Amino acid sequence: xxxxxxxxxxxVDLNTLITLASSYxxxxxxxxxxAAFERAAARLQELGRAETQRSGTVFNNWGVSLxxxxxPLEAERVLRKSIDISMANGxxxxxxxxxxxxxxxxxxxxxxxxxxxxxxxxxxxxxxxxGDEVPTREGLLLLAAICRDQGNLDRAAxxxxxxxxxxxxxxxxxxIAFAELARQRALNAKAAGDLTAAxxxxxxxxxxxxxxxxxxxxxxxxxxLVCRSEIALQLxxxxxxxxxxxRAIRILRDGGQSDVPSGNIGRAYxxxxxxxxxxxxxxxxxxxxxxxxxxxxxxxxxxxPDTRSAREQNNY
Length: 316
Hints:
The chain is mainly α. It folds into 3 domains: 9-86, Alpha Horseshoe (Serine Threonine Protein Phosphatase 5, Tetratricopeptide repeat); 95-150, no CATH class; 199-316, Tetratricopeptide repeat domain (Serine Threonine Protein Phosphatase 5, Tetratricopeptide repeat), CATH 1.25.40.10. The chain is built from 16 helices and no strands. 48% of the residues are buried.
């Protein structure tokens, strides 16, 4: 309809493009969302608005779409640009909480734990100071994941407990955010060696996601399936581990994440390969590890631990 307007409006064109990008993201079409946000950023540049706050927001949302598409190497550069646009006097003091939390998320994905913790702590502090619940909840769970990966299980548990209080206070119990809370509890239990509790929490997470599927679609489910697959593998439930990993791959393929190298599908293949190898399905396992390495090398980098693991497993 914009193209049929008798008088072309560049601003209407830009607004429509940004809305379309956001709609793709909400529908789980993250590759399409990233492409549309990229076009919007280019239009802002053409209109002389590359350094405006709106441009910073577009870069932030573009970066989030890239994270969700499993493309953290690209997301890191885009989110860094979002922060740079929002900086005042050469410092990050004026940057809002959510971009800091998002940048911490991509740094965690890339295995840069110290930097991730720094940004997560600063983003969380800003969110609490402003009374902004969304980045506070997300920041707490993200910081818990970072602390767990650094081996600080006590702090990870305390952060998840703090997040749980906020979730109960601010969200209806059916909200899909409770799935992420349950997953973090599962991963904490797994790290502590309590695999039975880990599986129970993981089941709760998947039940919550599946209950919301009719509203939000399947695109949120794969990461939860991969998490449960890894727990099932440690418990020796090899068939369950294979089933969950294979289902995650099917959902990601249907969502277009196999068209471009993606860390999401790469990690799902890595988990599937481990489940297949544990069942002595060597040929299928090698094929899964090869697919994992191909995706992870481009999406996460050749020296990322997951990429190295896929490469080593394939050469086993």
